[in-house]
Amino acid sequence: MQRRTLLSALAAAGAASAAPWATAQSTWPDQPLRWVVPYPAGGGTDVLARTVAEAMRQTLGQQIVVDNRPGASTNIGAQMVATAKADGNTFMSADNAVLAYNEHLFTKLPFNPEKDFTYVGGISRFPLALVVHPAFEAKTVKEFLAYARANPGKLNYASPGNGSPHHLAMEMFKNRTKTFLTHIPYRGAAPALQDVMGGQVPCMFLDLAAGLPVITSGKVRALAIGSAKRVAALPDVPTLAEAGVPNTEVFAFQGILAPAGLPAAITARLNGDLNKALLNPAVVKRMNDFGMEALPGTPEQFRAMARAESKRWGEIIKAAGVKLD
């Protein structure tokens, strides 16, 4: 009898201590939310975050304030979220850098992408295209490779900087094709693209979020797309696999992370509202404008994709010897 009484008392005490947190979950969200974007305002990640945030506001019933925290190849923003309180009021845009590159590019990170975050869900994926200046003599990937092999080390390519998706896409391309091209890093995508359009550098990998308008206008010529299938906006541009370079999917992706330990009920609510937002007409239009593919799904699916990408890119980064510290 005494044992039953003790167990009953312990159960009651546990229920009482859990009650405030259970109540907090049931009333969430009860204040404006913070969406950290680890890039400057005005870029593609920022614009997409603001578009999705507005759609989620309509179903969550709370304002979502976008907080731009650029720097250190996204590590500043990621560390902020990794150390934030796991109450559902702070989350972030997370991309290839946070989830697939930086753990291989930096000797030591201020966060662990496997342990320090709750994976909420995917937002989008968009492929990169191999583009050349319109006057460049190669009209196909086969001709491009023939030129590169006939001129080893003399063919330069641009990128927004060391460790960027564009840089690493070319490193994968070089790895798969056994070619040698010289990297010319710039401080951002805009100046890199400007020099390719101007003919100062003949080629680069370009994400469709920024590159679709200049490709369709003829300012650069796309030789191939780094996706599993052709994109509707560029139906005549083959995939890299179709062009003779298999096993070379190169794309950027984005999703939402929150601090580790986020309660399951809040995670499920955020994921559900995110998936609803991806069907919102304004979000669909913005993604179409950027040449993006929506990535709805479960937190588990997003985590599995991110970890698979980390393994895939880790092999390329190691083989290329790329380091950012």
Automatic annotation (TrEMBL):
User: Does Signal appear among the keywords?
Assistant: yes
Q: Which Pfam families match?
A: TctC
Please give the family membership noted in the entry: Belongs to the UPF0065 (bug) family.
Q: What is this protein called?
A: Tripartite tricarboxylate transporter substrate binding protein
Q: Is NADP there in the keyword field?
A: no
**Signal peptide (residue range):** 1-24
**Known Gene3D superfamilies for this protein?**
Bordetella uptake gene, domain 1, Periplasmic binding protein-like II
Record keywords: Signal
Domain of life, per UniProt, equals Bacteria
Family annotation (CDD domains): PBP2_Bug27 (cd13578)
List the PROSITE patterns.
TAT (PS51318)
Q: Where are the annotated coiled coils located? A: none
Q: Which PANTHER family match?
A: BLR1237 PROTEIN, TRICARBOXYLATE-BINDING PROTEIN
